[in-house]
Amino acid sequence: MMASKLRSLGIASLFVALLGSVLPVQASPVGKWEIEFGDSRYDVTLCGDGTQLCAELIWLGNGADNAQNMPYLNTLLIDRATPTQPGEWKGNLHLFGQTADGTITQVGADQITLRGCVAVVLCRSYQLYRMSE
Predict the structure, then answer these.
(1) Confidence (pTM)
(2) What total of structural domains would you count in the chain?
(3) How many CB atoms lie within 10 A of CB 52?
(4) Domain containing 113 — which CATH number?
(5) Burial class (CB in 10 A: 0-12, 13-18, 19+), 22
(6) Domain-embedded: residue 21
(7) Full residue range of the structural domain in which residue 64 is found
(8) Cβ atoms within 10 Å of 67's Cβ, excluding its own
(9) In the structure, what pLDDT confidence band is assigned to residue 13 with cuts at 50, 70 and 90?
(10) Is residue 7, in this structure, part of any structural domain at all?
(11) Is residue 60 part of a domain?
(12) Rounded to an integer, what distance in angstroms lies between the CA atom of residue 76 and that of residue 42?
């Protein structure tokens, strides 16, 4: 009887250990990211209370490094977006003088989707890809 209980406990422990190794772990969004067009890069950090998301524009190039856009260099694209569920935040997106209500979704370890809407009906999505460090 005791051996049977120990065997059951051992099997249950093994099952839990195996299950834990197969469940996906949410990757951290922290790091350097480049927009899909390759003309701007961002430093993404956890900020505020440590769960909020911030992203600073740190580089412009490939034609975006012009007099119109340069004033936005070293400013926040995302400022303290609030988590809504694992891998998703909501807040304002500030992109080159435009502000939109945004949703930031980490769709994979190396991809983030930014979706911003102005006046609810004018919406646009952008992809950010993690840069290798």
Answers:
(1) 0.79
(2) 1
(3) 17
(4) 2.40.128.520
(5) exposed
(6) no
(7) 27-130
(8) 6
(9) very low
(10) no
(11) yes
(12) 9
